[in-house]
């Protein structure tokens, strides 16, 4: 699929996104119909590795898709950007983690939160970490089966992939022009394969493609 076909697919969604924009504002989340529209087409497959059913496209087309979707609904465009970016990041994790993540298909979504609260705790354990805490501004988390969070290990920051079963969504964000959620993790056991960065028991693992993209 070339760039023009991708942008045409995004443009075809603009009228219905415009109609649903007020619904998204009322619900304070992206309508399920819109999530289905995004996951059933090719737009979210752009940044998924080909071996897992994606298109393996160059990521530079994604901002153009975001711009096009934003003509219909800014909230949808923002969440699309989060989900597409997370797919790209997941493609840098070890292969076994990617296989687990995409075992549910190319409609798997992930939110990302980079600002942990002061109560966040990350403790090294045998073969991984134990993680708990609160992360604010979890855009796109309602439809997500996974969430990417940041934590601080003794050797530096780590990016960790947490499954939906290990976090809860708390409705706390009530600004005039912005509405959203936060994610809380009571206690999650994280294997090393679900983290990238620096760990005390392993050499530096910087993000790099682990599958055909």
Description:
Helices cover 31% and strands 29% of the residues. By secondary structure, it is of the alpha+beta class. It folds into two domains: 3-102, Acyl-CoA dehydrogenase/oxidase, N-terminal domain (Butyryl-Coa Dehydrogenase, subunit A, domain 1, Orthogonal Bundle), CATH 1.10.540; 110-198, Butyryl-CoA Dehydrogenase, subunit A, domain 2. The strands form two sheets. It has a five-stranded mixed beta sheet. Helix 1 (3-27) packs across helix 3 and helix 3 (62-70) packs antiparallel against helix 4. The model is unreliable at 175-182 and 198-213 (pLDDT under 50).
SSE arrangement:
Layout (H helix, E strand, L loop, with lengths): L2 H25 L4 H9 L21 H9 L3 H17 L4 H7 L8 E4 L7 E5 L2 E8 L10 E8 L2 E8 L4 E7 L4 E13 L3 E5 L2 E4 L8
Parallel strand pairs: 1-4
Antiparallel strand pairs: 2-3, 3-7, 4-5, 5-8, 6-7, 8-9
Helix pairs in contact: 1-3, 3-4
Defining key terms:
disordered C terminus, alpha+beta, Butyryl-Coa Dehydrogenase, subunit A, domain 1, 213 residues, single chain
Name given to the CATH architecture of the largest domain = Orthogonal Bundle
**Superfamily (CATH H level) name of the largest domain:** Acyl-CoA dehydrogenase/oxidase, N-terminal domain
How helical, in percent, are the residues? 25-40%
Q: What order do the strands of the largest sheet run in, or round the barrel if closed?
A: 1-4-5-8-9
* Shape, per Cα inertia axes: globular
**How is the biggest beta sheet arranged?**
5 strands, mixed
What is the rounded Rg?
A: 17 Å
How many separate domains?
2
* N-to-C SSE string, H for helix and E for strand: HHHHHEEEEEEEEE
Low-confidence stretches: 175-182, 198-213
Mean pLDDT: 81
CATH class of the largest domain: Mainly Alpha
Extended strand count: 9
